[in-house]
Write a sequence for this structure.
């Protein structure tokens, strides 16, 4: 039977002769540059070129090549490529610029080849690129995302001084002798304690205090993490004995050991090394190897002995980080006057504009703030109540899932801000207009408002917040170097640290990006974006195992990052491995 079947096949092939044409891949030489599509300044730019061979029976008839971007529910035909007939081949090439839309992030770019009379469907397809790298759009600008805390947007105009209602952050380091966990009464530690007390006197409303015991890599510092925790607990006891009241509910106490994080922070500001020599240190510190391997490699670098002599003693420490703000509010008599005024039509009851503003900013509920600031617009001609009432509307918009209601609240906020501007050209008002615009996706208009606001005040806290938002927009606009300059401030939130790291990452400064991403993780381990940034760094440097470790942490903490990681072209090579999909189980 097998002999007969073989004979029939041989006969048919012989009888058909030249009518049987071997298959050919006419799109084999299609190329795209860059190899991965990248979001840049609201667009995607790329070049496609290729050639189609003309070889006797293999020559295509009426050939045509189209380019299509195809998503799960949408597609865009980018048109037909003009074929140039040359000796033995057709050539084609074209530059493309397309306006980015969110659905394109997971889309596929394909070349479609047609030939012959019936060109209703392509004869061949070739995937040129999968997805669009949209790393700049990870930046946090106040948008609400599923399963993430609602970001605070908008800036209230504070009473009295321009910085009165802004939270403050500061850190204080207490130093120990080698191998010891006893707080020694040195001049340096006394000065640190005095500075800490002065900070609390100025900002007595503490919202969080974190004490971290740190150990130096020196042999005298022990071979386990006990010393670091002992230092943290000794520092807590020292603060309590110094009459500093610390509520357990606000306290976070921990230690770090066998971790180069604090050493990297010190190295960043160390002035005795050249930039080139620092890069040698960073290349080891960021290579993803284990702690001991990195320690051995660091010792081989020229100058390590001097660096360790200068910096290691500074790691025999406990770091105290405090987030606090000044007290605000009315006394009982003023509170009674306020209530009487709120319940009467046009009745002020003798409270000053400052008293009203203090009442508004010290009220914890948005509903109470709304009532107070609304009444203030009736009593006083000032930009403050209109601006602050607009901020209330902005924050109410953050809390609704109804797009129509959100849009109406933004419109109402903008009307109030316009009225505030007619009274006073105020930087807080301009900042808030810019914040609404960026949430609406009107990035260029937002940038102009924030730029105008930046020149109207020298208040450091306002400038920090305004410049941070401008820096975030710089990332979206593709001005990565400029963005890094806007993040040269002291931060305390994981979102700010992440944005700073993202600016460094996009500008190619991976050493500083790593530090900022790690600071984001330290500031808020439930905030997955710092881990995602570290995964990106590991992926671009070829450290697959490290990338997967960080990526696992990120996707476990954020559904948004879980979905993004599945399609992010930055992890395309990792997606070719079984280990990648294991972390999603």
């Amino acid at each position: 039977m097998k002999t007969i079947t073989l004979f029939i096949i041989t006969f048919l092939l012989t009888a058909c002769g030249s009518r049987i044409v071997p298959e050919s891949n006419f799109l084999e030489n299609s190329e795209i540059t860059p190899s991965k599509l990248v979001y840049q300044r609201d667009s995607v730019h790329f070049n496609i070129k290729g050639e189609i061979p003309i070889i006797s029976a293999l020559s295509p008839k009426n050939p045509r090549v189209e380019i299509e971007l195809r998503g799960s529910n949408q597609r865009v035909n980018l048109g037909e490529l003009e074929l140039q007939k040359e000796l033995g081949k057709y050539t084609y090439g074209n530059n493309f610029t397309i306006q980015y839309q969110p659905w394109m992030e997971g889309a596929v770019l394909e070349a479609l080849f047609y030939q012959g009379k019936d060109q209703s469907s392509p004869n061949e397809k070739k995937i040129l690129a999968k997805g669009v790298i949209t790393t700049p759009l990870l930046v946090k600008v106040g948008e609400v995302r599923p399963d993430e805390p609602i970001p605070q947007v908008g800036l209230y105009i504070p009473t009295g001084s321009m910085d009165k209602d802004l939270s403050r952050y500061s850190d204080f380091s207490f130093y120990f002798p080698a191998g010891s966990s006893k707080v020694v009464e040195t001049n340096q530690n006394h000065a640190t304690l005095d500075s800490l007390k002065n900070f609390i006197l100025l900002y007595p409303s503490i919202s969080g205090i974190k004490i971290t015991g740190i150990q130096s890599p020196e042999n005298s510092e022990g071979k386990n993490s006990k010393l670091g925790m002992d230092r943290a607990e000794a520092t807590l006891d020292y603060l309590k004995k110094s009459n500093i009241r610390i509520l357990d509910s606000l306290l976070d106490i921990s230690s770090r050991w066998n971790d180069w994080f604090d050493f990297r922070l010190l190295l960043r500001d160390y002035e005795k090394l050249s930039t080139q020599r620092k890069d040698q240190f960073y290349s080891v510190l960021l290579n993803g190897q284990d702690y001991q391997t990195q320690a051995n490699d660091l010792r081989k670098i020229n100058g390590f002995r001097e660096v360790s002599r200068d910096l290691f003693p500074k790691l025999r420490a406990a770091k105290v980080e405090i987030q606090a703000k000044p007290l605000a509010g009315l006394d009982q008599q003023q509170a009674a006057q306020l209530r009487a005024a709120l319940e009467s039509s046009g009745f002020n009851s003798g409270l000053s504009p400052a008293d009203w503003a203090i009442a508004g900013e010290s009220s914890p509920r948005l509903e109470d703030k709304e009532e107070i600031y609304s009444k203030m617009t009736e009593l006083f001609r000032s930009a403050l109540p209109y601006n602050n009432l607009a901020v209330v509307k902005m924050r109410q918009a953050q809390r609704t899932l109804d797009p129509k209601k959100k849009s109406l609240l933004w419109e109402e906020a903008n009307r109030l801000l316009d009225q505030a501007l007619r009274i006073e050209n105020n930087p807080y008002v301009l900042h808030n207009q810019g914040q609404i615009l960026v949430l609406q996706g009107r990035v260029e208009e937002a940038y102009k408002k924030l730029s105008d606001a930046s020149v109207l005040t020298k208040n450091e806290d306002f400038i920090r917040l305004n410049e941070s938002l401008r820096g975030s927009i710089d990332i979206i606009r593709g001005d990565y170097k400029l963005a890094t300059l806007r993040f040269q401030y002291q931060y305390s939130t994981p979102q700010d640290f992440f944005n700073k790291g993202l600016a460094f990452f996009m500008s190619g400064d991976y050493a500083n990006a790593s530090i900022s991403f790690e600071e984001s993780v330290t500031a808020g381990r439930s905030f997955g974006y710092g881990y995602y940034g570290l995964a990106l760094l590991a992926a671009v440097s070829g450290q697959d195992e490290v990338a997967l470790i960080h990526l696992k942490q990120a996707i476990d903490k954020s559904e948004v990052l879980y979905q993004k990681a599945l399609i992010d072209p930055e992890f395309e090579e990792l997606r070719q491995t079984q280990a990648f999909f294991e972390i999603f189980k």
Q: What stands out?
A: The CA atoms of residues 39 and 512 lie 23 Å apart. The first strand starts at residue 31 and ends at 33. The first helix runs from residue 2 to 16.
